[in-house]
Write a sequence for this structure.
DNA sequence: CCGGTCGATCTGGTCAGACCACTTGACCAC
DNA sequence: GTGGTCAAGTGGTCTGACCAGATCGACCGG
């Protein structure tokens, strides 16, 4: 295993994670009250400011409802949380949640072609050059992780060209969830990234400024791996079959 | 003007907003360093913990890079921020940003039909009843804002039925951005919400478990208002035309 | 008996000041 | 150059105090 940057966990980080686990893994259901800041500080053996920092960060992501004078209550993350919670939900209690993984694959397949179509409308020739260069770099390496990185860069350019802040922000969150686990996911996604030809067809369609062709080409890039991974997930968790 | 809940702004809230403005409105470009916590506290006339809380919340949303011992630097929100930043970008310096508004409309048109298709696959008869009830309620009121609320509830049920955490979380963020401005947006979206018939067609397709029909029906629900609003935006800001 | 008032006592909000831990960069010895 | 050292500045954490809103029971007047 290659060298890795050391990760330092601050006290508030630690508190944040612990409280988040309680909330996400159901230790404290939605609507229930959290212990008071003072009590939490005492129980966890840290200072109150540290607890406050953690709780405020959770409130920032709409996971808690903090009211001056009243108790701090847990909100229903299913109804209020944003995409940033995704990585935490994907891996719950150390195990990958197949339902979440499925939803990611499905969303990719819906959004990807849409973004590609917009990029085709707005990209222009400069974009085609950029995409082609990225694909060249992708084709030249044999390292699975590096190929993932290049594929990510490819989509990054597509999203840029789509000139859509909403898709940009969605992509940011998904990338933030994907990148830390990139090494583990590379083997799974290899099938997709190996199809450089499909990417080139997509690039051509985008470069030609043809949204509908680009949409279809993006689908053809994304669908194979999506299909086989969905099948693998279904085998993993038969309950997903009939849902 | 109807009564409104009083809004209490805490000190860290205030600091958060001010620093956020600096970051988003370009006062401090990406990569630049923020003044030190002590300095900020001094300049703003508040305590250091208050500043810390605000900065940590910003770091939580990937807008800042805080390093122990080093300076706190601003990150490029275009590349790292999540969907939660959307409301803040939509209204910059008190004015609505047409490019952001456009991206929201476009994204809706891409994602909505996709979600509808998934809901059709997985909904079942119970969902059709739920959707029908929601539409009945929508049809019975003349209040524009209430109609928006019901339309939102309609999509909420659709997203639920799609059984997709990713779409759920996306929807949460978009709803969080939409709801506070609901009153202002109601007139703009009236055209869409008035087409109860189109919603009923969509409901039928979902109830019938027919994904492709549902996809098309959702498109027909969303497209008219999308098209006319996009035209209005283009008139507002001609630069959008040729992008 | 009901409804309002008051206040004790919870809760979170804010502050000051101290000290620890880390990063940086200048400087120095090799 | 290379690597060590050190001081200064930054964020990290704690303590303890006090302010301010929320809550609820005890009380009191109708």
């Amino acid at each position: 295993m290659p060298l890795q940057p050391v990760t330092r966990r601050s006290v508030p980080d630690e508190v944040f994670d612990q409280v988040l686990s309680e909330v996400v893994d159901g230790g404290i259901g939605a609507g229930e009250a959290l212990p008071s800041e003072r009590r939490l500080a005492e129980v966890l053996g840290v200072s109150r400011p540290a607890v406050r920092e953690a709780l405020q960060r959770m409130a920032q992501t709409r996971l808690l409802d903090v009211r001056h004078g009243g108790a701090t209550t847990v909100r229903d993350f299913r109804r209020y949380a944003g995409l940033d919670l995704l990585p935490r939900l994907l891996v719950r209690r150390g195990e990958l949640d197949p339902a979440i993984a499925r939803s990611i694959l499905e969303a990719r397949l819906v959004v990807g072609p849409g973004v590609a179509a917009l990029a085709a409308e707005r990209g222009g020739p400069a974009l085609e050059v950029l995409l082609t260069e990225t694909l060249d770099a992708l084709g030249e390496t044999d390292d699975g992780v590096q190929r993932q990185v290049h594929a990510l860069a490819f989509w990054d350019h597509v999203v840029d060209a789509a000139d859509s802040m909403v898709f940009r922000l969605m992509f940011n969150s998904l990338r933030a969830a994907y990148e830390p686990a990139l090494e583990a996911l590379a083997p799974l996604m290899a099938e997709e990234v190996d199809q450089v030809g499909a990417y080139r067809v997509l690039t051509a369609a985008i470069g030609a400024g043809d949204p509908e062709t680009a949409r279809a080409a993006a689908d053809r890039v994304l669908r194979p791996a999506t299909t086989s991974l969905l099948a693998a997930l279904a085998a993993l968790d038969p309950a997903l079959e009939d849902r």
In short: Residues 211-236 of chain A form the longest helix (26 residues). Chain A touches chain B through 47 residues (CB under 8 Å). Residues 8, 36-38, 52, 55, 66-72 of chain A lie near DNA strand C (CB under 10 Å from a C1'). The mean pLDDT of chain A is 92.
